[in-house]
Amino acid sequence: MKHENRYCTCMAVLVLKPKEDIRIRRGHPWVYDNEIARTLSDPAPGDEVEVQDARGLTVGYAFYNPSSRIRARIYSKQAKHADLSFFLRAFEKARAWRLLCFGEDALTHGMSLRIVFGEADGVPGLVVDAFAGIPLEASASTPALPQANQPEGLWLSAQFLSLGVELRKEHIVAALREVFKPDGIVERSDAPVRALEGLQPSAGVLWGTVPPRILITENNAFYEVDLLGGQKTGWFLDQRANRAAAARYAPGARVLDMFCNQGGFSISAAKAGAAAVLAVDSSREALELLHHNAVRNGVSDRIEIISANAFDYLRELEKMGRRFDLVILDPPAFAKNRAALEGARRGYKELNLRGMRLLERGGILATFSCSHWFDDAMFDSMLLDAAHDCNRTLRLLEQRNQDVDHPIVYGYEESRYLKGRILQVL
Ligand code: SAH
């Protein structure tokens, strides 16, 4: 890192082509390779660089990565150096946002939260989830119903998804420890996007001790999460409010939870009084945790768990003549880039069409897309096409996004990634 080099305190400069600063000044923190007119001096991969507009005015300070199409990621418009004090300030601000959203005692009273959401929190490429709960030994075969869930510890699960944060891991761990006082930190940098930054996957305990599983509380339900073995950071915190929203339509309902993972929607619906829940996912590991979670919440008698491919199983259900009152569709991102949009649209449409067909007239569809490329307009037009094909009418009950610990920043549209619609299907 340049600033640590005693012989040279200068910072390399990326000069943008004319007008390329506009989008960045309006809040988008990425500089693409084709937007750069010239590079002054020779920054090393991961170095801090100053980004200037075509007139030589400073636009911001960024992490440089010559191996990525995103050549520079802006971390600040004012602070020159991403040193320990920078990360301390960034995490204090990130913490303040969560307390604003969820109350002063959110982190001390056992809420599990996304505490750093990359660029949306001013730390490009760093994602950190904090899990508050009770440590568990691995796979207790007959989990007990907890009497009360007094959190006994706080563990962090971090993804380092840019070269800039990868090279500053030590400062980041020190600052996370100082601001959030966790008992342990795991790294889950095993996401495919790391390859676009020229980085290998990496996972394991970064600091402290981390139990095999943690029992967390969400919307008054209990969930076992596996920080090292679960998908992504171990638990999908972004759906917290949507699980509660969908559960409002669950009392007395026959519910289908497609792409159920560890059962966030299923258990919320069962606890809200669903008559029966059918939970489907292709991941056996996730379904094993779902089973534990169903037992822990005292609802295992009303949740049937099926391991299957969603597309095949939706067809099966139709053949079997099954009908539902509430269908939840929460697939993984089908569009990982612009080129995949057309295929993604077909996938989303097929799912939603089949989901609608399984609903009684007047039933409720809670449907999601977590791909930012597939935007709100595309999502709504796909839903309308699906409804038209099965001769149904959709009435919008709720338009939803990810929960607010994953902030949406205007100008940085990648942060507006999770879209949800709760619809009545007539
Ligand atoms: N609804 C979940 C999150 C879903 S994430 C929650 O509330 O936490 C997407 C899920 O889809 C993952 O659990 C993954 O295992 C599953 N999945 C991916 N492709 C699938 C397929 N073709 N059929 C069934 N499940 C699939």
Description:
It is built from 10 helices and 20 strands. By secondary structure, it is α/β, with parallel strands linked by helices. Strands 7, 8, 9, 10, 11, 12 and 13 form a 7-stranded mixed sheet that branches. It has a 7-stranded mixed sheet with strand order 16-15-14-17-18-20-19, sandwiched between helices. A 6-stranded mixed sheet has the order 2-6-5-4-1-3. Helix 8 (310-320) runs parallel beside helix 9 (341-357). The termini are far apart. Mean pLDDT is 94; it is low at 1-7. The structure holds S-adenosyl-L-homocysteine. S-adenosyl-L-homocysteine binds next to helix 6. The site of S-adenosyl-L-homocysteine has 18 residues, from helix 6.
Structure summarized in a few sentences:
This protein has 426 residues and is of the alpha/beta class.
* Range of helix content: 25-40%
The bound ligands are:
S-adenosyl-L-homocysteine
Shape: globular
Strand content: 25-35%
Give me the strand/helix succession: EHEEEEEHEEEHHEEEEHEHEHEHEHEHEE
Alpha carbon gyration radius: 23 Å
Low-confidence stretches: 1-7
The helix-and-strand class reads: alpha/beta
- Architecture (CATH level 2) name of the largest domain: 3-Layer(aba) Sandwich
CATH C-level label of the largest domain: Alpha Beta
Number of distinct helices = 10
